[in-house]
Specification:
heterodimer, A: 292 residues, alpha/beta, 7-stranded mixed β-sheet, 14 strands, B: 433 residues, alpha+beta, 4-stranded antiparallel β-sheet, 13 helices, 20 strands, 32% helix
């Protein structure tokens, strides 16, 4: 068991013929992900690496190859449009790796998402991986190992750090979700926590956050009330200079500041173990979680 | 009358891990992926010009960049009150002090002679405010505006509400003061209106704010128009924040924006070349500007331990752990996921141009980025620019063995570390020595 993706996932890659898209598609295939189609408008009828069919539209990829999950590698000016296309075609899960999508575009995407059944992960994220089954994104596959710890993170390489700490101590992961670092993301910490809370194979959780916004505080409040599984967390940005944080108007909107100390306090209050340094994330989890 | 604009920049949460030199080959806008900040700020006089284009009333104003333009500019004003405003991006101007001892970056004067004298003392001088840091900012532009008779001051802003992913209007009858203070002491005086992106700002919502301000009749209509225009500016120009503090009503019943602050979404600048042209590089750290040219995400800080990391989250976490062990980070530097040897060399050049640096910590978790690439980059940098301070390198991930081998064989004085905490401890003790 796992969350969102597994060996049944049938992946379509939007932007499969770009350099980044092609490179990472090959890495995903090498890991064992079932990539069933690619989409690049104007290149329909061609084949990627002489094997995977390329279509002009997502609709064709869904209808002809049964794609149910999409990975988006489309450049920022066109990425929002690609996500909207995938939503329209009934793709269940859209994983958008693209960095640099305008906020206004994401406001529109998020609005459309709220009126659909699709789930978006990202943008500006490393993707999602269920070790041993399916890798969708740009994370290095080999640092992972199948297991029972779920990981949710806003940051890419910091996730790898946590995964590696677990793997090198002999603990595997059920699924790792990189939710992305943008102000607007499809899946927030709290949404991912809910998925893991309901997954019987996930025994414990690691939550990695950053300064800004209040997603970590919201997740902490949910965990406090509804989650029995052991949780550890780390918040990056304790030393980030205050002048570079979001200004006053943002804090007024949320009523909270989004500072590292505020987040750490909220997490601790929810009974979550907070790692004092990024070197101690796995160690902190293992003080609250005793795997059988 | 006072400018109370505050910075709205946010440390980038970038997590991109692209293969080297390959982002967006179909989109020739390389700069799209190299924004070192999320927002671009503009000056008050630029914001007010934009306001005028969108039909938002502002006091009559003229900006000058040279002393010989002062008299011509002032000749366009009546001999009544004139406000002289130093143009820098930082807030707190009126309470600031110039390094030559002159007090205040905003002066209200009653004659053209006084206005010219104030402008001459400000122009070319460095203004220090609570937001500029001790080094201050050089004033290159002076903005003259007509002094306004103020009946009452209000606060008005539009920005993104991250919790709902929708634009929100924040307004208050308590303008001209620190709005954060109002929010904490008198939250009932804050009006918030959430806007449905697919519908836009509806007239009833604008009326909600106008009536909330107590405006009736023509003044109410003027406020509704002002707000509709402000939202149009926010949406069409991809602003991340528009803020008027204060918005004023006059004894004759007019309303206008006495100050104006607008920041733009860096990611959307590609579709607004006219806005991007307003960028003032003098307001940005030259090291940050240089870094952005090489696709490096760099932010200068005031400590003495430099760090070079891949990934924004890991870079922030590396700064945190340096501090945890008693050191002080000199910078935030995310080389991205796909830096090549040349970018690594460039990163070292930028780091070493900061004279405060007493040590460098390199922390790389190779995923897409390979450790041997980083190792080669470090060796090339050491040969090209010369690294005169202690260097600690922690490599993990893809091709780590090759990377460590390369560093070991290079004959350079490099301290290696196996874990992040080991690396942080080492660089702190070496840099403090």
């Amino acid at each position: 068991m796992s969350v969102l993706v597994d060996h049944n996932t049938r992946l379509v890659v939007q932007g499969i013929t770009g350099n980044a898209g092609a490179f990472h598609t090959r890495q995903c295939i090498a890991y064992g992900t079932k990539v069933v189609a690619g989409v690049t408008p104007g290149k329909g009828g061609e084949r990627f690496d002489e094997c995977i069919p390329i279509f002009d539209t997502v609709a064709e990829a869904v209808n002809r190859e049964g794609a149910n999950v999409s990975m988006v590698f489309v450049p920022p000016p066109y990425a929002a449009d690609s996500i909207l296309e995938a939503i329209d075609c009934g793709v269940e899960l859209i994983v958008c790796i693209t960095e640099g999508i305008p906020v206004r575009d994401m406001i529109e995407v998020k609005d459309r998402l709220s009126r659909s059944r699709a789930r978006l992960i990202g943008p500006n994220c490393p993707g999602i991986i269920t070790p041993g089954q399916c890798k969708i994104g740009i994370m290095p596959g080999y640092i992972h190992q199948p297991g029972k710890v779920g990981i949710i993170s806003r940051s890419g390489t910091l996730t790898y750090e946590a995964v590696w700490q677990l793997t090198s101590r002999g603990h595997g992961q059920s699924t790792c979700i990189g939710i992305g670092g943008d102000p607007i993301v499809g899946t927030r910490h709290i949404d991912a926590v809910k998925l893991f809370a309901e997954d019987p194979e996930t025994e414990a959780l690691i939550l990695i956050g950053e300064i800004g916004g209040t997603d970590e505080e919201d997740a902490a409040a949910f965990i406090k009330d509804y989650v029995d599984k052991p949780v550890a967390a780390f918040i990056a940005g304790t030393t980030a200079p205050p002048g570079r944080r979001m200004g006053h108007a943002g804090a007024i909107v949320s009523g909270r500041s989004g500072t590292a100390s505020g987040k750490i306090e909220a997490l601790r209050e929810a009974g979550i173990g907070v790692a004092p340094t990024p070197s101690e994330i796995a160690q902190t989890l293992l003080t609250v979680y005793n795997p059988a | 009358m006072l400018s109370r604009s505050l910075p709205t920049e946010l440390v980038s949460g970038s997590t991109a891990v692209w293969p080297s030199g390959q982002p967006w080959e179909r989109c020739d806008e390389r700069r799209l992926s190299n924004a070192s900040k999320r927002f671009m700020n503009i000056h008050e006089y630029q914001a007010k010009t934009l306001f005028e284009q969108f039909g938002i009333p502002v006091p009559k104003g003229r900006a000058i960049q040279a002393a010989n333009e002062i008299d011509d500019a002032l000749a366009t004003f009546n001999e009544a009150g004139v406000v002289v405003k130093a143009q820098i991006h930082a807030g707190g101007r009126s309470k600031g002090t110039f390094v030559n001892g002159y007090q205040g970056g905003v002066h209200v004067v009653s004659t053209h002679g006084e206005a010219a004298a104030a402008a001459r003392r400000m122009l070319g001088n460095t203004l220090v405010t609570h937001q500029t840091g001790p080094q201050g900012r050089n004033v290159r532009t002076i903005y003259f505006t007509e002094a306004s008779a103020i009946e009452k001051e209000y606060y008005l802003a539009i920005l993104l509400d991250r919790a709902t992913s929708k634009p929100v209007i924040v307004a208050s009858t308590e303008g001209g003061v620190d709005i954060e203070e109002v929010a904490s002491t008198a939250p009932e005086k804050i009006i918030k209106v959430s806007i449905e992106p697919s519908l836009g700002l509806r007239p009833y919502q604008a009326r909600q704010v106008a009536y909330g301000f107590g405006f009736k009749g023509d003044q109410n209509g003027a406020m509704v128009r002002l707000l509709s225009n402000l939202y149009r500016l926010f949406w069409e120009e991809d602003a991340s924040l528009v803020e008027i503090n204060p918005l004023i009503s006059t004894p004759t019943g007019d309303i206008c924006a006495l100050d104006a602050k607008v920041s733009f979404d860096d990611n959307a600048l590609y579709r607004h070349p006219e806005i991007e042209a307003l960028r003032d590089l003098n307001e940005e750290d030259p090291k940050e500007v240089e870094a952005a040219r090489f696709n490096l995400n760099y932010i200068a800080l005031d400590g003495n331990i430099a760090c070079l990391v891949n990934g924004a989250g890991l870079a922030m976490a590396t700064m945190d752990i340096i501090k945890h062990f008693g050191g002080n980070p000199a910078n935030f530097l995310d080389v991205g996921g796909g830096a090549d040897e040349k970018q690594v060399t460039q990163a070292f050049t930028i780091i070493l141009s900061d004279k405060n640096v007493r040590g460098i910590l390199v922390n790389i978790f190779g995923g897409i980025m390979k450790c041997d690439t980083i190792a080669t980059g470090i060796i090339e940098a050491a040969q090209a620019v010369g690294i005169s301070v202690p260097l600690v390198v922690r490599l993990e991930g893809t091709n780590v063995e090759t990377g460590r081998q390369l560093l070991g064989d290079s004959g350079l004085a490099i301290n290696t570390a196996d874990t992040l905490s080991d690396a942080a401890r080492k660089i702190v003790s070496l840099a403090i020595k």
